[in-house]
Fold:
Amino acid sequence: MLGEHPIDVMLTATDVGVVRQFYHDRVGLDVLIDSAEFVTFRCGGDSRLVFTRTSAPSGEQQTKASWRVADVAAEVVELRAHGVDVADYDEPGLRTVDGVADIGFALSAWFVDPGGNTIGLLQFKDEALR
Structure:
């Protein structure tokens, strides 16, 4: 069944070229497939991140995809060093310290990519979930 197969995350962007540059140059992903209509990046394991061209930018603010990481604080420092604007929040129920929030079961951080997609980082507190 499908639980035995890799899955690709597919998001949209109005300018695939800007997204390609952002994820390659700032986030450090290797490009696997590149065309005018879509770009595919290699991620950990056999996972891939795919962006397809759209005429309307994403207006939704919920997290579209999250990387599972061992040290979210270190990843935030590295992303910021490469010019990625990691979000800071100070709202009821969500407060970050140096870009990192404790959301109960995990530590988390977020950034919004040039396509308007909110992307997360998760460091699970329970190692069995990693």
Remarks:
- The beta strands are 8-13, 30-34, 38-42, 48-53, 63-68, 90-91, 94-97, 100-102, 106-112, 118-124.
